[in-house]
User: Fold this.
Amino acid sequence: MTFSIFKRPQAERDIEECFVFIAEENLDAGVYFLVAIEESIEQLAKFPLIGKKMEFRSPQFKELRNWRCQKLLRLPDFLSG
Assistant:
């Protein structure tokens, strides 16, 4: 079962700002970033319990998980050089 992911307006703005910042130096890298973000969101929709559960004092964060986006950790050769 795939869940729906709602991106808050601020999240949309943050993603867009990151894209612009990256694309000013390297358009391909900016596009790669956007694709990686969208693919990550799709993966979270399919597997909402992915990642390691984190511990916080505040109960409002009791379900927060830490998960690394592998696609953003390893850039393809054409972007890293």
The mean pLDDT is 87. The two ends are 39 Å apart (CA to CA). The first strand starts at residue 52 and ends at 53.
